Fold this sequence. Notes:
By secondary structure, the protein is mainly β. It has one helix and 17 strands.
Amino acid sequence: MKNLLIVTLLITCLTGVSAQTTQNRTIGSFTGIKVAEGVNVYLKKGDKESLRVEVTGTDPDNVVTEVSGSYLKVHMREARYRGNIEAKVYVTYVHLDKLSASSAGSIYSEEAVKSNSIDISASSAGEIEVALDAESVTASASSAAELELSGKTKSLSTDASSAGEIDAYNLEATKVQAEASSGASIKISVTTELTAHASSGGSIRFRGNPNKSVTDSSSGGSVKKSS
């Protein structure tokens, strides 16, 4: 009987740890988001900033959400980031002009993020997958990070290094500037003007027939038109 009680208590404890817990939070105004340490952020446009935290395998209080300057910073508390923890943060925003993901953090959008100008960056295995409707977009990826961009923009500036990847085949851009180095990869779609440089094993692939095209490569880099 005693052994049965111990087993029952263990099962109860394990079930409690693995159960999903939700917590709604109020938050101040922000125009940028920084996410890190394995947290997944999901974006939604709204009339007022708010967020909801959903976790499995930990307490929601271990997910930090704080506004610093113009940024909403989202990450795990120190020493709370483990492989068996799942943390999702659903963010309602009013306006965004900056997105950043690092240390395996991720950002996803449910709909196109509309902005006059937006800066998107990912590093250290961070991942950002968003749809955009912007006048100008600046995108950078480094250290095995990944960006997947879709939508439309008049001006796109991209920079990828150290095995970073930018896939913007589904982002229709009028004018594009691209630079890839150190084994990084950039994929773009351009209609009017392209300036591209690849070096040190960097790869740039583009779709479209730009009226003006200036491309060059060095040290094993390559710039090619794809079908």
